[in-house]
Write a structure and sequence with these properties.
- This protein has 21 helices and two strands.
- It has a two-stranded antiparallel ribbon with strand order 1-2.
- 70% of the residues lie in helices and 1% in strands.
């Protein structure tokens, strides 16, 4: 055997631990400075995910605690075995809705059988995703251009921002995916706008901006939420119609095993495949967008492995299907996270919150969180790169615009009802 062959074998053997345990790649980067930044980002993320976890569980047809389980368990495995420095996994709107669609016709939402089927489906999704990772299908994502990712990021950010308008105004609105009805809803509801909710949301947003400008090293989102919460307390927001997060159950994830897996797997195999693919596209697209924004490396195939393991691991701890969360990942990046340790610490802090100070978060005003999330959505739009594309390349600009339109396509027309698009008629 030649010397070059021996050297190649030695390099592969020496690199094996990092392949099996990818966290060994970023762990040496952890120091006092990165730890401080990660802790701030973790506290911010844990605060935001509290109401999100409960809301997403409701969308999925599950009791509230299962959304919190997913927010605690899924990010840990995804951070340890994934590749992104900023991606935070957990419950998402799209995956929660897909889970409900897959199970509601067969089980009663919220029932014991429904919960068991949801956990079995989560395990199936994780196994499929892990299989995709072993097959190294992550390479396909490398064909996605920078312009596509810029457009995707902007489209997702717009949807996130619009989804928070109803909370900031304290009114009921149609979903922002239907822009026509959404705009009409805003116009019709102007007389019903809850003034105090709007003030709290605006003060929270402005506080975050001011702290970001004049004290960039301070945790601007956390401070903004404190100011918004304090303002609500001083003005008796709870007594004047300002909605709060509400009582959060102080629970610890329970060990779970799918019951009657054979029948469940047979009934849900097609749904599991669809959810697995959509979840991977969601997670890897977000991871790549943030890696480009933060100029950090990304191994798409390793990220797929991490997503698969996060769902496999989560299914045994009462977590339902998770994926990359655009809101939490964007907030993680904007809050200054430096390593995946931020996502892990966020889960730990969330658990501590649930045990120690859950009653206090019942008073956290939802409009304050809406103001913070709207700012996150705005910051995720890369206006500088858009301007550069417009000046330098018409073709790349067109690609970015098409992706932006496709990412927000449901907001441009009412899906399945009035849309003349061929793609929508096929949905």
């Amino acid at each position: 055997m030649s010397a070059s062959s021996l050297r190649g074998i030695r390099e592969r053997v020496e690199g094996l631990p990092q392949v099996l345990f990818p966290f060994l790649v970023w762990w040496p980067q952890v120091n006092r400075e990165t730890l401080r930044s990660d802790v701030i980002a973790a506290i911010t993320g844990a605060t935001i995910v509290l109401p999100q976890g409960i809301a997403f569980a409701a969308i999925a047809g599950l009791p509230a605690q299962y959304g919190l389980y997913t927010a605690m368990i899924t990010p840990i495995a995804a951070a340890l075995f994934g590749s992104s420095m900023y991606l935070v996994s957990g419950p998402t709107t799209a995956i929660s809705a897909l889970l409900l669609a897959a199970l509601a016709g067969k089980y009663t939402p919220g029932s014991e059988a429904y919960v068991s089927a949801a956990l079995a489906l989560t395990l199936m999704v994780g196994l499929i995703q892990f299989g995709f990772g072993l097959a190294r299908l992550g390479r396909l994502v490398s064909f996605v251009s920078h312009s596509v990712m810029i457009g995707f990021t902007a489209g997702a950010a717009i949807l996130i921002g619009l989804s928070q308008v109803r909370h900031a105004l304290g009114i009921s609105l149609p979903r922002p995916e239907h822009l026509f009805e959404f705009v009409l809803g805003v116009v019709d509801a102007i007389p019903q706008i809850h003034g105090l909710s709007l003030i709290i949301a605006a003060v929270t947003l402005i506080t975050a901006v001011i702290v970001r400008i004049y004290r960039p090293k301070w945790p601007n989102y956390v401070l903004a939420l404190v100011v918004g919460g304090g303002l609500s307390f001083l003005l008796d927001g709870a007594g004047n119609g300002v909605k709060g997060v509400g009582i959060i159950p102080s629970v610890f994830p329970e060990i779970s095993l799918p019951t009657n897996p054979g029948a469940t797997f047979k009934d849900l195999s097609q749904s599991a495949l669809a959810i697995a693919i959509i979840g991977l596209l969601e997670a890897v697209s977000i991871a790549k967008a943030l890696s480009l924004k933060g100029n950090t490396p990304l191994d798409s195939n390793q990220e797929i492995v991490g997503q698969g393991l996060s769902n496999i691991f989560g299914s045994f701890f009462s977590a339902y299907v998770g994926s990359g969360s655009f809101t939490r990942s964007g907030l993680n990046y904007e809050a200054g996270a430096k390593t995946p340790l931020a996502a892990i610490m966020s889960s730990i802090i969330l658990l501590m919150i649930l045990f120690l100070v859950a009653p206090l978060f019942a008073y956290l005003p939802i409009p304050a969180m809406a103001g913070a999330i709207i700012l996150v959505a705005y910051k995720l739009i890369d206006f500088k790169t858009f301007r550069h594309l417009i000046i330098s390349s018409k073709s790349e600009t067109m690609i970015a615009r098409i992706q932006l339109a496709s990412a927000t396509l449901p907001t441009v027309c009412d899906v399945r009802q009035r849309c003349p698009c061929v793609s929508h008629r096929l949905m």
